[in-house]
Amino acid sequence: MLFRSAADQRPDLVHLLGDDFDFSALVDLDETERVQLLEDLPVETVAEGVRDLDSDDAVYILEDLDEAQQDAILDKIPHAERVSLERSLDYPEESAGRLMQTEFIAVAPTWTVGQVIDYCRETADLPEDFYEIHVVDDEGRLLGTVALDKILRAKRMASIHDIVHEDRVAARVGDDREDVAHLFEHYNLISLPVVDENDRLVGVVTADDVVDVVKEEAEEDMRALAGVGDEEISDDVWYTTRNRFLWLFVNLITAFLAASVIGLFEGTIAKIVALAAMGPVVAGQGGNAATQTMTVAVRALATREVGGLNLRRFVNREILVSFLNGIAFALLVGVVVWGWYGEWQLGFVVGAGMVTNLIAGGLAGVGIPLAVDKVGGDPAVISGVFVTTVTDCVGFFAVLGFATWWYGMA
């Protein structure tokens, strides 16, 4: 209800709520609206609210502000807390360092289970939620972890050294957050320690943070495929127009490229007017088939399902599927065109174009995302426009080219 109110009323509402306002609500607020609200609130209010948050939520809220605003807010925060937040903000965007929270429990391997339990009971400033105890040496290097259930089942005098899980997987502060999410999926984790370049424990990523990452990455890929980038529904008209213009302009250029292919066969179209109606059918069907293949390929790349031994199998499968669908739709379209125009030769030409374009669509749908990923690009962002271009150009060229050849031979 708070954020459905008019934007200019939100600062007043936050002020009226006072200490009852939970700044963690800003984490779920649209980025544009969150930044606007933080700019409208007094710096002292924001600083006090940030102090009450877990470090990962505090970083998430602060990272979208400009440097001057960040500095003004951080200056109002006590030194120890400020240093921790500044260090997290210095890590690259979308890295494990930005995602982690710096509140965690670390003990020496010489402690006993009883000491750990007493420490957790008596210490006031522990993380709000935690599932594991991290074991570190005298220099803070991660040695392993111990799950809480294992501690509760062990005798009080048992040494932490005897029950520590030393093979515990960890992330580096510079690791991409998508790689962190894959670690959670692969190892079925509920939390993941994060270490620096010297293997010192600096933070912990929890499962709830990874759920947010998966959701955000899925939304980014979906928007990228449609060419709308990081657009939000709260963005103004001018920003939205500029954001969409470039992608629409690129699509316009590729449309002219397809039109130039048609221009090569103006004489054929003038003689066989039916080709003007059949060309878009073949091009559109190829585009739909290519989009199906491309979607599967982009998802497989995003989830790391393609690579190594199964790459060749995946490519071969998609090509074979495209070929079989091409044969099926070639027969179907050929019969329809023959019945419609009463000319079997025209049906043969359109059918041949359909087979060719669906195979080309399959090759483009799988090949372009793989090539883009190979050179370090984002397949979700780049692939769509090129795949569409391929199917449009090949579709028109195949139909009109086959027609020119066939009727020229007849």
Low-confidence stretches: none
- Provide the helix percentage: 55-70%
Shape: elongated
By DSSP (H or I, 4+ residues per run), the number of helices equals: 18
**Beta-strand proportion:** 5-15%
Radius of gyration: 29 Å
Q: Can you write the helix and strand succession as a string?
A: HHHHHHHEHEEHHEHEEHHHHHHH
Order of strands across the biggest sheet? 1-2-3
**Mind describing the biggest β-sheet?**
3 strands, mixed
Content-based structural category: mainly alpha
Mean pLDDT level: 86
Instruction: Count all strands and give the number.
Output: 6
* Distance from first to last alpha carbon: 73 Å
What do you see in this structure?
With 410 residues, the chain is mainly alpha-helical. 65% of the residues lie in helices and 6% in strands. The chain contains 18 helices and six strands. The chain has helices spanning 10-17, 31-40, 43-51, 55-62, 67-74, 79-90, 96-99, 113-122, 148-153, 160-163, 177-187, 207-226, 237-263, 266-271, 274-302, 309-341, 344-374, 379-409; strands at residues 106-107, 132-136, 142-147, 171-172, 191-195, 201-206. The strands form two sheets. The chain has a three-stranded mixed β-sheet. β2 (132-136) and β3 (142-147) form a beta hairpin. α3 (43-51) packs across α5 (67-74), α11 crosses α12 (207-226) and α17 runs antiparallel to α18 (379-409). The radius of gyration is 29 Å and the shape is elongated. The mean pLDDT is 86.
